[in-house]
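Running this now, will post back.
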Amino acid sequence: LQVEGFASQGGASHTLLGDGSVLVGGPRPATDVYTVTARTELTGIRGFRLATLTDASLPGRGPGRHHPDRPNFVLHEIMVSAAACRGEEAPVRIGLHSASADFSQARYAVAGAIDGDPKTGWAIAPRFGKPHQATFLTRDVIGNAGGTHLTFVLDQHHGAGRTIGRFRLLAVTGNPAALQTPD
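Update: finished.
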């Protein structure tokens, strides 16, 4: 997805990289909520993928910003809303289901990032220093022929700076059954 905007509730800065990813920098607040806006011309969107990426500038190469020895993150909730680019309709919250990830920390399964419970979330300990990805399917097929504005809210309130340091957002189209990440 083409990221058009990024805001950090905790005051972190960001850089949009050439590969479409967002590198978070600057202050490392204890907790943070990222709001990311993107635009797409795609139709038939059936899910979204969040890729958390490593970077030499992150503690321990990331993908989290917590500590060089434990560059973890905890994503408590990911929320998505969509609106037609024509601006005639108010944004609509997109229902997400069937979360899957290449890896989830014990007691921090990826399903916790879409269950509405502020005490659950997705984390990756002890597999630091390597990229990870999570996929969330949409309840309804989305995408407008004239383009769609998407807003992603990534709530990360675990504490001690356990926030995502670099990430990329992707839209998923096609057959959702083909998206299953192997165990």
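The chain has no helices and 13 strands. More later if anyone needs it.
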